[in-house]
Amino acid sequence: MTASGTSAPIRSSEALRKKLAKIGLHREADLLVHLPLRYEDETRITQVARAPWGEPVQVEVVVASCEVQFRPRRQMVVRAHDDSGELTMRFFSVYPTHQAALSEGTRVRAFGEIRSGLFGAEMVHPRFHKVAEGEPLPSELTPIYPSTAGVANSALQKLIGKALAAAELDDTLPDDLRQQLQLPGLARSLRFLHRPPPGTDLDTLHARNHPAWRRVKFDEVLAQQLSLRRAYLARREKGAPVLVARDDLGARLLDRLPFGLTSAQLRAMAEIAGDLGQPYPMQRLLQGDVGAGKTIVAALAACQAISAGWQAAFMAPTEILAEQHYLKLKDWLEPLGVRVAWLSGSLKTKARREQLAATASAAQLIVGTHALIQEGVDFARLGLAIVDEQHRFGVAQRLALRKKGNNPHQLMMSATPIPRTLAMSYYADLDVTVLDELPPGRTPVKTRLVADSRRDDVVGFVRRHVEEGRQAYWVCPLIEESEALQLQTAQETYETLLGEFSGLTVGLVHGRLKADEKQAVMAAFTAGAIDVLVATTVIEVGVDVPNASLMVIEHAERFGLSQLHQLRGRVGRGQYESSCVLIYAGPLGEVARQRLKIIYENSDGFEIARQDLQIRGPGEFVGSRQSGVPLLRYADLEMDADLVEMARNVAETMLTVHPDFAERHLQRWLGSREELLKS
Ligand code: ADP
Ligand code: MG
To answer: Taking 50 as the threshold, does the pLDDT of residue 275 lie above it?
Structure first.
């Protein structure tokens, strides 16, 4: 198909065009890939008396009467019959056109399910059309298209039929590649799905695993991969500083650590080191479950940038986490002569001015919150941008950090494990490194589910725990709807627990505390001066206090799975036996029950994420990052995982070896919809 043919607007009335645009149909080419939801078999007539009840059938009947009734509700009741018996058709809205069309003596073919009604066989809201006696039956299945108000299926059928007849459906996959993948041709597949030949098995069609469906789903996933991959390659075109270490800063940091790296960390480090030495920007995501040890990997990457004579920035989503990183990195690196700066929203004017000046001149590592990307922050020579817990940031914020430098290398980190297929879809424009191993000596966390009627037992449990010298977190009920209420709840929980834990030191930390107050509480907890830390989800990410080995979460049923997993990940970091107590209040809804079961039975973040995906579907999964998935209409990331794998490999080949095919493929499947990806 020629380019102009692909982008030609749909030939129809202006009014219809507007309606079609609502369901994403703009071009003639869009019609070709607007595929049926299902099919109906109108190739046969079933006799009323012999129709199996509850299955879709077509009958041909003659109308005996058509009347409007008002009781028990307004409806149109049509009595009709064929040779075998009587049929009542009911319509609960009375259209004058229907009434006229169904006058006495009219012969109609009606399609629907027959059920037993008050007067025997009944069809509610059948699709019907008038026919002459002996009118031939269609020889093909009837495609039923996804549609919108005001566009009849028959109209879509006609438009699509015409588009199909006019189209030159050149294949968008090179022949050898297509054969290698064992996929049928595009033209054949589309024609087949729009008008399956007589005798095609309806079940196979509806299950969508016919080879023609596979071809369509593959094409769709491939378009997504091509688009994301192309964006990735375009960014590489721009070039980036080559960061080759000029001294042994990294090695000296490793010498100072009380532990050796895991082999997963070493592997990740090697990949990152390789990327940084290239003349184009690294775009890498470092994924690793809670506690996998991402920070040290990031610190080593920073060392490489610094020792190459460039700056590294390290951005974290919350003040608490950023500060913790700052303190740790300073502790690791300042003794080695590295100048570390700190930027956060809460800095006082004078301190802020000093840190800004450092950032613009001699600082080598700059740690902070999103204060790093604000206007007025100038980096002298930003070579590497590190974003921790990257899913907490919006696309725009990550972009802003990239713009602070001259196309710096980027290292994104995330502890939100997402299933592999989803990752490949969402992150097709990133290289992904997975830390699939926890450092040795972690103690597995024992999870308990406790009904809130037994809250007193939990209080006793915490007390004994503290008496053994350990510390505990107590997470307040989550109130997502209102920050004010959340604050109040945190305060109340704290006061209640103060009473219940007389003799123990209880602290409180929440998002509304001033930065220095937060800092003081966290410092006291880290130093062991607080026994029980009452907290909101501000401690969800990153917080690392090895002596705290008990996590209590109130109203656990209100939390999402990844939140629970992250919270639980705060314990089990030292040599002590750790536990997580989930207090829940019944009665539990189905989803809440499933979530608690999953978190109770699983400790592996990836497995939890996989099951979460099954409950929630991909749409809600990765937060602000919307790219990719909305474009999939036919493929299902979970069920068609094999196709995603295939497409990822093929995308690479297509872009390098067959760029013309790639272009045509994108045009066919995305067209104007590709804009959606660029958000
Ligand atoms: P996360 O991947 O969740 O960001 P961190 O980087 O905070 O994990 O690491 C968690 C804890 O494990 C920290 O106390 C860190 O110092 C420690 N750690 C990291 N790597 C190792 C290792 N190879 N051996 C032992 N402890 C490690
Ligand atoms: Mg971390």
So the answer is: yes
